Amino acid sequence: MTTTTELKLKILSWDEAPYRELPDGAKFARATVVLGADAGDAAGTFESLLFYRPDGTSRFVCLMQLDNVIEGRSGSFVLEGRGSYDGTTAELVAAVVEGSGTGDLVGVTGTVSSTSTHADYPYMPISLGYELG
Questions:
Q1: CA 62 to chain CA centroid, nearest Å
Q2: Residue 45 burial by CB count (10 A; 0-12/13-18/19+): exposed, middle or buried?
Q3: C-alpha 131: how far from chain center
Q4: What is the residue-level pLDDT of the chain in tens, covering all 133 positions?
Q5: pTM of the entire predicted model
Q6: Residue 4: how many CA atoms within 13 Å on its side-chain side?
């Protein structure tokens, strides 16, 4: 049975730089983000490759590692995801990479979704649906 928990991760750092810029103003960028939680029960990092359209909206793909305590179990797992930014709202959907769980989270499966706006900053709200192995 899938259990859902809500996490509120704090964006501790966001290092983003373009690596290719196009004549029309579009660009490709790479971002490294470090996340933490006020309560100390979760932390993470993610790497994203982003494509920005000339109007500033974007699409991205990412790999995220979450270090977490779920139901008293500690460990980490990796998520593979994709998302978009429409100029107001950023959305992310991701799934746990099979076999990526460590510690007490070996065998974890699940998905993550996140929807945030500038009003959420410096936090990234995450909804984690999971099943423990």
A1: 7
A2: middle
A3: 19
A4: 889 988 888 999 999 999 999 999 999 999 999 998 765 667 899 999 999 999 999 999 999 999 987 888 899 999 999 999 999 999 999 999 999 999 999 999 999 999 999 999 999 999 999 999 7
A5: 0.90
A6: 7
